[in-house]
Amino acid sequence: MKIFSQTRAPHLLLKAGGHGREIKAVSASRKFVATGAEDTMIRIWELQGKNPLLRCVLALEKHNTGIQKLKWFKDQYLFSSGGNEEFFAWRVTPLESDICPLGVVCEAVFPDRSDVGDLRITDFDVQCLEEDPSIYDGAEDGLERTPTEPVFCISMSLSNSTVQSYLYSAQQGFRLLGRRMYTGACPTQLRHLNFKDRYYPQVLTAATDGHLAVFADVRSSGNETEDLTNILVTKLHQSSIKSLDMRSITTDNGISYLVVTGGDDDAIGVLHLYSPSLAPSGSSASPDPTHASQPSHYSQGQASTQYEIRNKFIVRSAHAAAVTGLGIVRLENAGRDAVIVTSSNDQRVKTWRLVDWQSAAPRVHLLDNQYSGVADAGDLEVLEEWYGDEDEKLLSKGDRGRILVAGVGVEAWSVS
Questions:
Q1: pLDDT of 39-73, one tens digit each?
Q2: Which candidate among 93, 231, 232, 307 keeps its CA 20 to 30 Å from the CA of 19?
Q3: Residues 136, 231 share a domain
């Protein structure tokens, strides 16, 4: 007879694992980072220290398909999309616990699915409207809302070339604002530009045909010919657009949008989009309407806000493979220059400076080119600010910036 016993595991854990498949989406709030992968899991990581260490504090298992996109609203809401028209709104609550510092519950499931129900929600944008019932004065729905109830405008792009927008709140759920069609190509990227009649969004999309499209109104007129002509479309890439980031600058004469894209053609595209209309007096116009935690520009009246393309160009062979991650780290020199970081399947992380992007002759300079250990990079996120324990600010918007590159693993980079 032989007896064997042991009091501990016969192996030593070097590093805890994360996802079982490559990460396709990453989004950061003030304290947490959410990642979504092809393994259908959403993992929430806590940012620790000035050299951002990530500690997984929660894993969410509700999606049945691979995650497409994730977006935070502050540290209060997390929105996620996937295949089979899955879209979830997660309510996040901080907890007094050393094990798990937050509690998460799925507050709502997107109900307005198509007849087939097998489309991918490729991208979406979320905007928290002002928490003031007066913004709904004269609204057609006649719903009553309290000042403390957050109301979101959510626009999403589907793989059947549909762009649709909804109002969402915890009490009222999803209400359709409008639905538009593109051309048959699959939209891959979507951003809110402006808002018409207080809460109808104007939307910028990028698609698999290499084109960018601006929808001045998400409401369909019912006339297919008019709907097709009421879209500003421009070609930028040879093939599919894989990544997009946007910043804006508000002046006395209008709003200038800097749109930077990464394509399947290994190129980086730059577009200067201009809206000559003015934000109304007394509104809380923000210099950057692309993040859900900030108020948007609003335009009044029945006429659509007009958009025009001031300039566009492309940087060919920016990478040796598709540019799958891209972020505008900061604007410099009173908004005339921009620092951009890109990641690619060639496992390179590159830093670029875009000079005088609003002029007729902008220039692009490669500042840095570094090897990345993340294979199959699927997304890139710019950390604008984050907070540590006891709300200690570890990074503010005035700092030089840090980024996260996600794919088979996650890396944090500092941008000087």
A1: 999 999 987 766 667 888 899 999 999 999 999 99
A2: 93
A3: yes
